[in-house]
UniProtKB/TrEMBL annotation:
Keyword Kinase on entry: yes
Pfam family, one: APH
Record's keyword terms, sorted: Kinase, Transferase
Cross-referenced InterPro entries: AGP_Transferase, Aminoglycoside_PTrfase, Kinase-like_dom_sf
Domain of life (superkingdom): Eukaryota
Protein name: Kinase-like protein
Domain Aminoglycoside phosphotransferase: from-to ranges: 77-282
GO molecular function: kinase activity
Signal peptide: none
Record-linked SUPFAM superfamilies: Protein kinase-like (PK-like)
Keyword field contains Transmembrane: no
Species: Penicillium argentinense
Length: 309
């Protein structure tokens, strides 16, 4: 693991390392070797804790008071998702304090990343802190009673966001991100530009099939459309609920749900399908399936995933 600086270094992303804490003084980072009270710092100094750093994204905690998420691919859809959940439900979610999405770069497909003149868009979201620790830190140490309790809590929270009303301007859209933009899910990204809106379940299934064939799928060429689940109802969906995004306290009570970048309106089975993706969290998916209030046949989704992921 990279060690924190022993002397001052410039405040640059390359000098920030996950799990480390620093004192930021203007454009300089100073070592922070002991617990610090921000009130004891000099004017202009701040305590910065690096919570996450990966894939061009940086999550920082400032003075133990608020958090910023910034970098590649941080977009308005994530902020809008948190605003919708905060407004319409009691689900514990970060409150958005401020945003900056000044980049004018638009990504329409993953092929854009390979263009010679491509400059990745960068966004910034400032938000309140959610207390607790990520569930992934202690899931494997929990007994069956605690695991069942957490999963039931999660399904209860999921049921609350499914009732978030669709804004009037999104009427006619069957599937879209929280801000009305097209999905970037590998199952649903459009091969055409500009992206075509998905206005029905049949269009969504056709999109999955189109991508399956485009990416070389042959085994279920004649049967995939019939294998895919059908749903005439789309509901608000987190779309990435996993132990890394679930915060819990010492009593195994859920204190918050993080990472809303994939959220939007999806078929009513989508949350279930996303949760049951192949994962690396031991028996997490088994417990979530066991406690699910409703189960769907995912053979078609799983067949498509083997080609599209």
């Amino acid at each position: 693991m990279t060690e924190p600086p022993s002397t001052e270094v410039p405040y640059e992303q390359q000098n920030l390392h996950k799990g480390h804490q620093y004192i930021k003084d203007g454009n300089t980072l100073l070592p922070c070797e002991a617990p610090v009270n921000p009130l004891d710092l000099g004017a202009g100094q701040e305590v910065v804790t690096v919570l996450e750093k990966q894939m061009g994204r940086l999550v920082l905690e400032w003075d133990f008071s608020w958090v910023t998420k910034s970098g590649f691919g941080v977009r308005s859809a994530e902020a809008e998702a948190m605003r919708l959940v905060f407004k319409h439900t009691d689900m514990p979610v970060p409150e958005v304090l401020f945003t900056d999405f000044s980049s004018d770069e638009v990504i329409t497909s993953r092929s854009d990343f390979f263009k010679s003149d491509f400059h990745p868009p960068e966004g910034l979201i400032g938000m309140t802190i959610i207390p607790g620790v990520p569930l992934e830190q202690n899931w494997d140490t929990l007994d069956d009673v605690a695991k069942e309790s957490i999963c039931l809590q999660l399904w209860d929270l999921i049921s609350t966001i499914r009732n978030i009303p669709r804004p009037p301007e999104f009427e006619g859209l069957y599937q879209c991100a929280a801000d009305g933009s097209p999905s970037r899910d590998p199952m649903l990204e459009d091969l055409q530009k500009p992206a075509r809106p998905l206005s029905s379940d049949s269009e969504l299934r056709a999109r999955i099939y189109e991508r399956y064939i485009h990416c070389g799928g042959t085994r279920y060429e004649n049967s995939l459309l019939d294998m895919l689940p059908r749903s005439e109802r789309s509901v608000f969906t987190h779309a990435d609920i996993a132990p890394r995004n679930v915060m819990v306290d010492e009593q195994e009570k859920i204190t918050g749900i993080l990472d809303w970048e994939s959220a939007g309106w999806y078929p009513d089975y989508w949350e279930y399908a996303q949760i049951l993706r192949p994962a690396f969290w031991g028996d997490w998916s088994i417990w979530m399936e066991k406690t699910a209030p409703q189960q769907w046949d995912l053979r078609g989704i799983n067949a498509a995933r083997k080609v599209l992921f």
